[in-house]
Amino acid sequence: MPNSDLPTSEATIRRATDADAVELADLFWTVREESVPGIPMIVHPRESVLPFVREVLLREFEVHVAQVGPRLVGFMALVPPDVLGHLYVARDHTGRGLGSRLLALARERFPSGLQLYTFQDNHGALRFYERHGFVPVAWSEDDNEEGAPDVRLEWRPR
Length: 158
Prior knowledge:
The protein is of the alpha+beta class. It has a single domain, classed as Aminopeptidase (3-Layer(aba) Sandwich), CATH 3.40.630. It contains 4 helices and 7 strands; from the N terminus they run βααβββαβαββ. It has helices spanning about 20-35, 50-60, 100-110, 125-130; strands at about 10-15, 60-70, 70-80, 85-90, 115-120, 135-140, 150-155. Helix 1 (about 20-35) crosses helix 2 (about 50-60). The model has no long low-confidence stretch (mean pLDDT about 90).
């Protein structure tokens, strides 16, 4: 059951720990599920998400989580020197500035610039990133595991 009693502005952003793995895997799955068709659903079975989070995401990425009360409501995953690999916010916390706060942290971590991929059909994400100064630089038709067209965007400081 979502806990929307606390405002998203009260979210704490912190580095993820191994103790976050189960809740982080649930959040990852849920946000993807909520976002179909703009973000295609994960092509792997549900039970593969937790091992991915534990063995890949928390080991190979710099993961930051957004927490409201006891609940994780968003996360981002970075890869040096400039990749924003994931940025997800739970539906009941979108449109309240949390994605912008996570993105500001990403820029702080990688001040020379960022690049990311998003699906071409994820119009909300495209608008969000373009509003924050990202520009599309490359398009592909289906070279990801979802087989869905995506776009690479970049942000470089002025």
